[in-house]
Amino acid sequence: MASPSTDDQESSTPSRRERPSLLTDIAVALLLLAADAVIVVVAGLLLLAVGLGTAPSPRSSSPTPRSRDTPAVTWLIIWGAPVLAAAGAFVHARLRMPVTAVVQGLFTLACLVLAVAWTRMLLS
Questions:
Q1: E strand or H helix at 76, and its extent?
Q2: pLDDT number for residue 108
Q3: 95 — phi, psi (to 5°)?
Q4: Three-class DSSP category at 71
Q5: DSSP, residue by residue, 3-66
Q6: 16 pLDDT band (50/70/90 cuts)?
Q7: What is the DSSP letter of 2?
Q8: Of 13, 28, 56, which is closest to residue 4 (Cα–Cα)?
């Protein structure tokens, strides 16, 4: 009895996942772009509001006193966002969705810029 050829075995069980269609990739990228834009705008507005709230008032010459003890949860949120964004970019790259991976990569850069800005503000 003859054994099945290796070509038949490889064709019936794909070794790699099929790439999602380009239309699916673009649709997911647009949805994530909208969500990412909302996140970046809200984080930027919060940064502005908190930064203005700690600015010196015209009546006083010193800034509002701030605690040097920033909770660990705050640092986790500030630096966890870029880590999660980078993980999302990596996952979409592994799923072979290049448009979505690029969008998530740009979101990672925006999160890094915001994380640095938040860190500078909290440490100043």
A1: helix 72-94
A2: 97
A3: -80, 0
A4: coil
A5: PPPHHHHHHHS-SSPPPPPHHHHHHHHHHHHHHHHHHHHHHHHHHHHHHHHTSPPTT-SSPPP-
A6: low
A7: P
A8: 13
For residues 32-48, one letter each, b for 16 or more C-beta atoms within 10 angstroms of the residue's C-beta and e for the rest, the string is bbeebeebbeebeeeee
Which two tokens mark 116? Answer: 């640095």
Residue 43 structure tokens = 């984080």
Cα distance between the two ends of the chain? 79
Tokens representing 121 are 């503000």
- Under a CB-based contact definition with an 8 Å cutoff, are residues 10 and 82 in contact? no
Residue 96 amino acid letter: R
Q: How many Å apart are CA 111 and CA 102, to the nearest integer?
A: 14
pLDDT band per the 50, 70, 90 thresholds, residue 63:
low
Residue with tokens 């010459």, as numbered in its chain: 61
**Cα angle 64-41-54, degrees, rounded to a multiple of 5:** 5
Would you give the distance in Å from CA 87 to the centre of its chain?
8
